[in-house]
Design a protein that fits this description.
Length: 139
């Protein structure tokens, strides 16, 4: 079998053409991947915003009904007495235990995440201290 000889100009042309082709293919794949990711993230953002829009429309409907209810002076007076402890002349406002318990639960629920973070950070610091002490004793 005879080996075909490749001319030097052909080798030179291939030496230039292969890297250029690889650069073009790499750029095309990178651009395609970037735009696919961009489309995917925009669709996710669109779904999130549509969900948020539905929630805002529901909230708007609720607020519209509240506005209509507050046009009635009897409802407004009852609402103020129930939620803000207002009273008519001669009435006394008495707070029940249920309301006090609700307030205490709200305070406890607000303190729980702070307490949890404090405990986790403390444990983490103790573990780091133990590790450092153990490492210094080995030396």
């Amino acid at each position: 079998m005879e080996k075909k000889r490749v001319r030097k100009s052909t080798k030179h042309r291939l030496f230039i053409l292969i890297p250029v082709t690889l650069v073009v293919i790499t750029y095309t794949v990178a651009s395609f991947s970037y735009y696919v990711y961009k489309i995917y993230s925009l669709k996710r953002e669109e779904e999130t915003l549509l969900h948020k829009l539905e929630g805002l429309k529901d909230e708007e409907d609720n607020l519209q009904t509240d506005i209509e209810k507050f046009q009635n002076p009897d409802y407004l007076a009852r609402y103020a007495r129930e939620n803000y402890h207002y009273s008519k002349d001669g009435e006394l406002v008495i707070q029940t235990k249920k309301e006090e318990e609700k307030q205490e639960q709200q305070v406890e629920e607000e303190e729980k995440p702070t307490y949890f973070v404090f405990v986790v950070c403390s444990i983490f610091l103790v573990l780091i201290a133990i590790y450092l002490l153990h490492k210094t004793r080995k030396r």
